[in-house]
Design a protein that fits this description.
This protein is mainly beta. The chain has a domain of 83 residues. The protein is built from no helices and 8 strands. The strands form 2 sheets. Strands 3-2-1-4-5 form a 5-stranded antiparallel beta sheet, with no helix packed on it. A 3-stranded antiparallel beta sheet has the order 7-6-8, with no helix packed on it. The chain starts with 26 loop residues before the first strand and ends in a 22-residue tail after the last strand. 24% of the residues are buried. Bound molecules: zinc ion. The site of zinc ion has 8 residues, from loops.
Length: 127
Amino acid sequence: MIVDDADLDPCDREPHYKCSECGSDEFIVVYTDAERTTTWQLGEDHRMTEKIDSQETIGFSHERGWYVRCAHCDREIKFGWSHPERGGRIWPVEAACYNPWKSWPEARYRKGWPPRPGVKLASSGGP
Ligand SMILES: [Zn+2]
């Protein structure tokens, strides 16, 4: 699938990600299916980069599906996708350029989206 991300470019603010608990700027993406758990580092361009050895994530116990976690304190961080049907890139709510109106929430966060009260509406609309 070819997706056009032109309307949702990552910003260059630093730190790009920041855990509201521990302040870490390293986020990881975890995907669990019936057989295994796969973990990637989340790059500043909101794409999954390096795969991380799953042994390091042995402490994770969660259900099948996609997760974003803080690499330092292991906290689950809510996130959306840049396109529907889990397409495009990953937007954690604790990213500097996060915009709830320009991302499609991961299915289990749909209820109560956007997750932060007081988030300002984008002037350019959204999905
Ligand atoms: Zn953390």
